[in-house]
Amino acid sequence: MIAVADYGASNTQSVLRALRAVGGEAPLLTTDADTVRHAERVVLPGVGNFAAARRRLDETGLGEAITEVARAGRPVLGICLGLQLFLAESEEAPGVAGLGLLPGRVARFQTQLPVPHVGWARVRLTAGGKAHAALAPAFGSGGDEAFFYHVHSYHPADVDAARALAEAEYGSAFPTIVGAENVLGVQFHPEKSQAAGLALLRGFACWTP
Predict the structure, then answer these.
(1) Going by DSSP bridges, is the β-strand pair 117-125/164-170 parallel, antiparallel, or unpaired?
(2) pLDDT tens digit string along 12-22?
(3) What are the tens digits of pLDDT across the range 195-204?
(4) Active-site residue flag, 80
(5) Does the annotation count 25 as an active-site position?
(6) For the chain, does the N or the C end have fewer beta carbons within 10 angstroms?
(7) Is the distance from CB of 183 to CB of 70 less than 8 angstroms?
């Protein structure tokens, strides 16, 4: 069972529909920490404010449950704000700690371009990304780039090269897929990214780290 952690983020239903569309293990939207704790794999979606989301994860116990799943070696995926919550900290909420499941922090875009960054962006795999089994279905055999839909004002930063699995560009390059062992995070919205997004979710649903 894939548990989709529900802490009040607005994009949970679209993520749930996309996971159902790719088949495999049945996804379950849940607010229950114990259900998450015992799931075979977990998805943390998210749209909103870092501090408010982190507070809800603490209040519901979902943050602790997701951390336990990650430490147990089961697959965990963070989407958009979900990825940001996996990192150590965010400029959006100074002094509020993230879950620390992935290396790096969250920074606001420093660019003359309009912020937030909204729209399709070319995502290019790094060497580590090309070797990642969960990502291969979205990029095709031998491929290293695809387009995904982004909506965000903040992005991962200070991610070491081995953990930055793909980059996009908005004024300058930024990591848009970050992964370490059984934990994976994407800054874009696969549920809004048509065929490539569904292929990525299918890859996660079948992934055995």
Answers:
(1) antiparallel
(2) 889 999 999 98
(3) 999 999 999 9
(4) yes
(5) no
(6) N
(7) yes
